[in-house]
Amino acid sequence: MSKKFRVFATCDIGESINLLRQRGYEVEVYPKPEAPPKSLIIEKVKSRIDGLITTLRDPIDAEVFEAGKGTLKVVAQIAVGFDNINRADANRCKIPFTHTADVLTEATAEFAFFMMGALARKMWTAEHLTRENKWGYWHPYLPFLGDEVTGKTIAVIGTGRIGLALIKKCTGFDMNILCYDPAYQNHEYVKAVQEMKDIRHAHGFSRDKTWIKYVPLEEALAEADFVSVHVPLLREGETTTPTYHLFNEKTLRTMKPTAYLVNTSRGPVVDEAALAKALRENWIAGVALDVYEKEPLPGDSPLRDPAIEDRCRLLPHFASAARITRLSTDPNRGMAGRTVQGLIDVLEGNYGGDITKMPYVVNKEAWGK
Ligand code: GLV
Asked: What angle do CA 170, 172, 177 make, to 5 degrees?
């Protein structure tokens, strides 16, 4: 490699940083665990770095891209979601950005499934009971019961990679599956899942016949016992199918009062004020959240109301937080490895230097013919 590339990382991504250094890169890592101030990111970009490693908490907008116009060659984000990166500005400044799709799909889907089970079977409340030494007897229904997941109906809202992975897991639990996606449908996958369901039933693995189908949003919400959200955050003006506040007073009221909502996608897909009201007024049975309108969740959030705490699980944006998923240096297994590979592809001109052929680049359209 003739040129020594300079990279600034807004967070530490573990051993993968050393792999860059071993290739001769000069890499500076922001040393604190919290996000660096935006002014520092701009300062680094203005110092003519070649690559910027970011994550979902860093606002990468017009100011950052303008600062790097003509010098910054790539933004490599360690996350699959990229709503913090302004795609139109990246395109205008002709700066490619990469993300880490695929490697976190199964980890996120299983976490959504576990959240759903923990919520419905009241594991948090039950453990509190044990720890606080309030478990005085075994009784058929006291002090409370939970709800089974097996055999129930789930609405999977968003059938991209993670939604489809969740469908696979729900199939193993003999769930009926209602699919909805505002922009992307995979009917072939749904057909294959139905075949699998039929085989499971034919061989006696599942007692009842179960089904999967695409339906309109309203039907999915009205019929489901569980609703799990897997859409990207898209705001008005960014798309013809925005997902901002897709869950609002109206859609929450469409759900059954016995139904549970799980969100591992992006916080602003759910209107939190409406959600807190839905819980307080029992429009729905419960919610498990991993993502929030503002992260970290503010101390005065209505979701922290003790009156709803038994029905409201609050996780710290943790769904992909598994060892291999986050930190493996292997680009086919870890987000860190994939981030670094995306960066290397652009800086070292892999794929004949053709951005449109680089698998981890998101905004290929800026180089389209
Ligand atoms: C996490 O939320 C991610 O987008 O990777």
From this structure: 35
